[in-house]
Fold these 2 entries.
Entry 1:
Amino acid sequence: MIEPGATALLGPSGAGKSTLLRLLNRLAEPESGTVQFRGQDVRTLDVLDLRRRACLVPQLPALLPGSVVDNVRYGPRLAGRRADVRGALGLAGLGAPYAEREAGRLSVGEQQRVMLARALALEPRVLLLDEPTSALDEETSAGIERTLWDLQERLAVSTVLVTHDRGLAARLATRVVQLREGRLLATRATVM
Ligand SMILES: Nc1ncnc2c1ncn2[C@@H]1O[C@H](COP(=O)(O)OP(=O)(O)O)[C@@H](O)[C@H]1O
Ligand SMILES: [Mg+2]
């Protein structure tokens, strides 16, 4: 049971952290057991709708060809909605001038923020963040961490944050779930 709020999934490489995130929005299917989202078996939900409500930001940026604004509009357009591009970019820590930039030419840190903006444009209830800072240098990583902190303060969005960084988990999450070799080792609350 993952409660509303900020949860960190902590564990060494290969522990099953990414797999657990993927189970939560049906990018993977369990061999046994069921996954429920707000009390409903995820298999009974429309899969695209589920992925908009529980939106995964992968470990490495994977942007579509085109501009930043093309990328941010893409998901909401599929859902027949208009995106608040400026709002999403702002929340992801990108100023309005980024909108027209070519997504593929941005730095990895900037691309990671565009991935975040894409997710936020869907107005998800849950953000599934897979090691959002692991590909980044210390300074860029600290910037993303501040952005994630602000999001949690400003939006009614729950986060499930995968990391192997205990410090990051303690700073950003109120609960830490520890995984090892595909099994749950411990769950504990962190002191904020
Ligand atoms: N669909 C799958 N079926 C079986 N094994 C898988 C599947 N997906 C991933 N794995 C394996 O599960 C283990 C955990 O992978 P992963 O969740 O990516 O770990 P982590 O993100 O904690 O580093 C790895 O050994 C991986 O090869
Ligand atoms: Mg992983």
Entry 2:
Amino acid sequence: MLRTITTAAATAAMLAVTATGASAGPQTTPNGPWLQDQQHVSLERLHSYDEMVTALKQIQRQSDGRVSLETIGQSNEGRDLYLAKVGRGPTKVLYITQQHGNEPLGTEAALQLLQRLGNGGAEWGAILDQVTLLVVPKVNPDGSERFWRQNYDPDCAGAFCTPGRGFDVNRWHDPAVDPAANPVPEAAAVQRAFARHSPQLVDYHHQGSYRSADGDMITTSIFWPSVSGVPEPALTLSRQSCVVISDTLTHYGFAEVSQYPGTLPRGIARNAYGLRDAGSVLVELRGGIGQKSSGMLVRTAYIVMASMLEAVAEGSVHAADPARADDIPLRGGFVSDPHDE
Ligand SMILES: [Zn+2]
């Protein structure tokens, strides 16, 4: 029902972004209204925390009630953590960005998506009848302000702490850790938001620059929960989501996609929310970014966000063959500037 966007504008948009033509794609490739969004990404400046808050409030104000905004906690330095919500569908999808302060582009993509959804439109409306989108942008605002990975907790101690800086936020989502006892308030806020809404989750990061086996630059790596104990339905949905993302980015020529060689800590969001029986996916954009490629990487994240929303709304994500996730190539050789999830 939703797959009716075949206007000239959509076709032109497809041609504009497709290197190989767009006629023979896999069944799972969404092709929805986001294809018409021919916006130009300006990244002369990334949003600081304050600028992001201003942008979120402006989006909410101008959305005619479509986008709501609430605070779900505070960082160690007292910055409010925001949850944006749009849509009225029974299925919930949660996107979180910038758990690592020095990985900003998912936040930029999320702001663009919220702006678009706030503007409304019939095509998006059909999607948002089926899905409710939740976004926690810039999960780690204190680290973001310093452009470092950790939160700000220089006196931290124990697991996943870097003394003088703070904790790795993306190690503190373990279901065994009670949010009330979580030493990382940013992770606890996401834990509580998850508990309230039981969403599927996609977590956006940057990695260094890697090459595939045939030498192409990898621009996106993705992965499903790899820890043992993830219930089968959640693992299946996570793998199906990865297939949709891979097919979509490959189909439209946005990115070389690989599997991310993710590790096993239970507190990594990808693992932790899978253990809670949710579809859970990690998306790693290429890091080591320059001005020139940043726009394309934001666009890539935006396409992942929009296409996942459509695939969940249509239910087409459930039609993807989860076994095909294993066909997504492994990440190739390291080029420069490593990060991990
Ligand atoms: Zn990261």
